[in-house]
Task: structure prediction
Amino acid sequence: MKIIRKIEEQQKCSLNMKCRDKKISLIPTMGFLHKGHLSLIDTAKELSEKIVVSIFVNPTQFGEGEDYEKYPRDEKRDLDILADKKVDIVFIPIVKEMYPEGFQTFCQVNQLTKKYCGKSRPGHFKGVTTVVLKLFNIIQPDIAVFGKKDYQQYIIIKRMTEDLNLPINIIASPIVREKNGLAMSSRNKYLNHEQRKEATVLYESLIYASNLIKQGKYGAGFLRKEMTNLIKSKNNTRIDYIDFVNPETLKDVQKIEEPTRILMAVRVGNTKLIDNMEVKP
Ligand code: PAJ
Result:
């Protein structure tokens, strides 16, 4: 496994793989790896010969007062995990080279970024698309794999790739959960024992809604209310949003008449957790 920190070295290495006709898959991450990240590597391995994982806690996607400084980092542990997983390259750029003095060019997807997570985190998705576009330019992957855990992020990146005619196949990989249903996330580290138990209410409420839909309850308003009551029954939870959306356009849906994605964000203590699920009538 090669560890690359310099942008120029990664560019040379990618060019070399391409000259040898090797298909490259990229899995962008912010590190502190868990089984969710590893499942993206498994998905990528089915699709291409060469696997590049990037680790970069991207400062431009964190707002003021957010957790950039205290975002969990453990490079040594991540590298051990990736070596075990037999990935080909780990790209770990440094902030000063990604954003040198004078940096002022950003990539912005206009509409899809306004709602849901974009509402409470203005500028967040602009930081995400900018860094992902930079990683695409540096690594030149044929395929890039993203988790459905961050469903809005996946749709935004798909839109950017299409809008900018990038020759990259964007693949979505399923959500990996703990045994109790909690979607895996590096930020779960912030939860204490009690909060971890309460955090399972996100998944429980999604399952509850999908069961109500199976019983013929199709109204988004009714379903939101039912989910809200369940979530509010737990201490220390505060709902940020629960929305029913078209899985491609992310436009609001009033009635579950076709496949719909439920998107949700809930604060457990001070930690914002997100989850989502597809439901069908
Ligand atoms: P990060 O939160 O590290 O996630 C990296 C990738 O892992 C994302 O595509 C995310 O959706 C996926 N992922 C995280 N938890 C998952 C789970 N439980 N199941 C399946 N996939 C999961 O998302 C980011 O980093 C950043 O915004 C990034 C795209 C790297 C840009 O900085």
The domain at 186-279 is CATH 3.30.1300.10 (Pantoate--beta-alanine Ligase; Chain: A,domain 2). The first strand starts at residue 2 and ends at 4. The two ends are 46 Å apart (CA to CA). DSSP finds ten helices and nine strands in the chain.
